[in-house]
Amino acid sequence: MASFASKTLFRVGIANIAVLLSAVTAMAGGSYSVDLNKTEIVRLPENAGAVVIGNPEIADVTVHSANTLFVVGRGYGETNLIVLNTAGHTIMNANIQVINTLSRQGVRLYNGKSRESYSCSPYCLPAPILGDNPEFIGNNTGQAQSNESRSITALPTPSTSALSSTSASASSSSFGSATSFDDF
Question: Which of 50, 52, 57, 94 is nearest to 73 (CA)?
């Protein structure tokens, strides 16, 4: 009889530990990195009953379905995402970090403290992002401008053979009406 009771208690104990471990794993959620102005898909382990984002100015969440979320990077920084199931239990508690990675075709032009971002594929066109000069952002968002009037032809200077993919600054030399870039 003692043997049956101890085996039953052992099984119940193991089952409780398994449930606790799965709950901790599901609640951990980990960390997610989202590029600024990009969307990441987050799949949940079960259906969500409530979704809360810590700071919607850093990341925004859209519920696509009961177990699929879209997280959009809205501003630089870190926030958290909490998801509860329909019973009110936490199924996810994750850190969301919004970062900005410059693409291979991207160029940043620095002039003192002022910054402008461009996408250079095949021509350099303004691609304003958070952190750029506010006047540059205002002049290049929400307006339909022709590519011809906004483009800059990037030419390598004699000291460099390619554009930097991480940052660039204006060179003091110029070739005709084109602007050239040096590695920063």
Answer: 57
Q: Write down which residue in 99, 131, 154 finishes a domain.
A: 99
The domain boundary, picked from 65, 99, 133, lies at: 99
Predicted confidence (pLDDT) per residue in 3-34, tens digit: 555 554 444 444 443 333 333 334 446 889 99
Q: Which three-class secondary structure state does DSSP give residue 103?
A: coil
Distance CA(175)–CA(54), nearest Å, equals 49
Q: Is 157 helix (H, G, I), strand (E, B) or coil?
A: coil
**Whether the predicted model's global pTM rises above the 0.90 cut:** no
Tens-place pLDDT, residues 58-88? 999 999 999 999 999 998 899 999 999 999 9
The CA-atom distances, in angstroms, between 26 and each of 45, 87, 117, 175, 176 are: 7, 15, 39, 58, 60
Residues 112 and 95 in one domain: no
